[in-house]
Amino acid sequence: MDKVYSLHDAVAKFVEDGDCISFGGFTTNRKPYAAVNEILRQGQKDFTVWAGAAGGDWDMMIGEGRVKAYINCYTANSGYTNVSRRFRAAIEAGKLTYEDYSQDVVMLQLHAASLGLPFLPVRLMQGSGLMKYWGISEEQRKTLEKVDDLKCVEIENPFKPGEKVVAVPVPRLDTAIIHVQQASPDGTCIIMGDEFHDVDIAIAARKVIVTCDELVSNEFIRRDPTLTRIFGECVSAVVHCPYGAWPTQCYGYYDNDPNALREYDKASKYLDAEDAVAQLAKAAVKAEKAAEKAPGDEKLAEAAARARKAADDAAAGVAIPETFKDYLNKWVYSVTDHNDMLNKIGGHRLMSLRNAPHLGYSNTHIK
Amino acid sequence: MADYTKYTKQEMQAYAIAKSIKENQIVIVGTGLPLIGASLAKAAICPSCHPIVESGLMDCDPVEVPRSVGDDRFMAHCAVQWPNIRFIGFEANEWLHNEDRLIAFIGGAQIDPYGNVNSTCIYGSGDYVKPQTRFTGSGGANGIATYCNTVIMMQHQKRRFMEKIDYITSCGWMDGPGGRERAGLPGNRGPQMVVTDLGIMKFDEETKRMYLAYYYPFSSPEMVQENTGFEIDVSRAELMEGPPPEIIKLIREQIDPGQAFIKVPKE
């Protein structure tokens, strides 16, 4: 069966408001950004999220208010942003319903989902805040349809009386979205390099969208079944999306785009112009106070003057730094589709990200 | 001519990390200083060690410094590429088999005298649900601290070394002797060392409390106590010599020439 869709149609058909959803990839590696951008354009929301080791993908969704409940283990574009900034801001403002597990537990939960297990006993999280504190209370959980009623329960190992273990729920995913190097029209996938939890969520989810750098024939993809990772019948839609993981890495194909990741790091600091003005004003006051405390310290005085100028320029509307909203307008909302975005990035920039075959990453990309 | 007789605090820390790795150990590294330290160990101090990464890449020997745990730079010259669940299973089985080969490097924002580490959030005037400062969350650290002996990397500041931390992300010795067993954690695993920019702390065999084992040529036991937010025994402290020039040359020219993690001061 031919499962090839346009990106627009795949997302329109298989991503619905309120879905329990998981994306493949790992922080800045093989994240399905083309599909994430399309979801942002189309407007689906209220997701219950099994994020895995997330980065800018879920940070953008959180910043745009599309997340109803966020199951977290790690959220950062590590190497570029220590803690994803919209994720952090939402939690510090008390505006994100979230739960923490350890990454091991989330990976095992997603694997258990792929195995069809009813629940999962682990010997993890014991003694830690991860068991003691619940981000989503039992009461609140009961009002959330797609969130399990309990975060975890300490139980006795039935086979080893006296041994305490931790039972955790196994997610029931509606939707999984992954980006792979090669897929064929029947849905078969080749994943090169680290597969992360992608195979697990592709088996576990009811609806699966695969975006691929190369769309190859059903015959070609079978030339060596040791390379294929996902059975086509698990897949709902296949979408041809060259550079579909940009600005993150795709092993054997392209490296991450440091310029885009740095741009996002800086821009995501400020939600919008109003937030930038407020934060810069606050930073100026802080810098001036520090300078006042140390009279004669030229460096601090200069820093205070710079901060004051930045705050005044922003307040007067003369120079407002790029914000999260600006970034999204530039790379998501102002482009009609993924191909339009690739044109905007530009040929030379994309070519500089291409992997050196002997390394598996680019040695020409702009550092 | 470059001067390799002077070194930075970070280079001292990387050297301290490399020296802490023993023959044939399997070393769980993240990025940043632990990776530089492990690379240094592999290249010069302890070539028989096997660096592995929580994303599931085993026996890594990268050509270029990876920027993060998931970076494809870890793929070049690694022996096996497993998915993360295999890594988790491997670390648990090492414990089940009573093997004592794993050593792991983890970091955090706060640490208490028993080596419990917080990398989740700082409450401030709030709480876990609405904290003053939020971090990434556990990542692989909780599982690592459950099953493996650890070396904890910290910046040595009073506000980070606290009698009581807000949230335990990765368990150390809990509240002292027997604490791990009471919590249901493997009792024969736990933090071995804390490596900071001021020295190396170890944990007392009897009390499981942190004490100063080594200070550096540019620090002192007094500096360590001043920058520690709890009473710390410094009576056993010895001086650790700084790295020889050939080690500094290796770090700057071979291991991190792009200065991804160790900045070299301009001469």
Description:
The complex is a heterodimer of chains A (367) and B (267). Chain A is an alpha/beta fold and 367 residues long. Chain A folds into 2 domains: 251 residues, Glutaconate Coenzyme A-transferase (3-Layer(aba) Sandwich), CATH 3.40.1080; 43 residues. The longest helix of chain A has 21 residues. The two termini of chain A are 43 Å apart. The model of chain A has no long low-confidence stretch (mean pLDDT 96). With 267 residues, chain B is of the alpha/beta class. Chain B has a single domain, classed as Glutaconate Coenzyme A-transferase (3-Layer(aba) Sandwich), CATH 3.40.1080.10. Chain B has 7 helices and 14 strands. An 8-stranded mixed sheet of chain B has the order 2-1-5-10-11-12-13-14, with helices on both faces. A two-stranded antiparallel ribbon of chain B has the order 3-4. In chain B, helix 1 crosses helix 2 and helix 2 crosses helix 7. Chain B is globular.
> Structural class of the helices, strands and pairings of chain A?
alpha/beta
N-end to C-end Cα span of chain A: 43 Å
Unreliable residue runs of chain A = none
Count up the domains of chain A.
2
CATH fold descriptor of the largest domain in chain A: Glutaconate Coenzyme A-transferase
Distance between the termini of chain B: 10 Å
Q: Please bin the fraction of helical residues of chain A.
A: 25-40%
User: What is the highest CATH level, the class of chain B?
Assistant: Alpha Beta
How would you sum up the major sheet of chain A? 9 strands, mixed
Number of helices of chain B: 7
The counted number of beta strands of chain A is: 14
Proportion of residues in helical segments of chain B: 25-40%
Q: Can you tell me the CATH superfamily of chain B?
A: Glutaconate Coenzyme A-transferase
Average pLDDT rating of chain B: 94
Pick out the low-confidence regions of chain B: none
What is the class of the largest domain in chain A in the CATH system? Alpha Beta
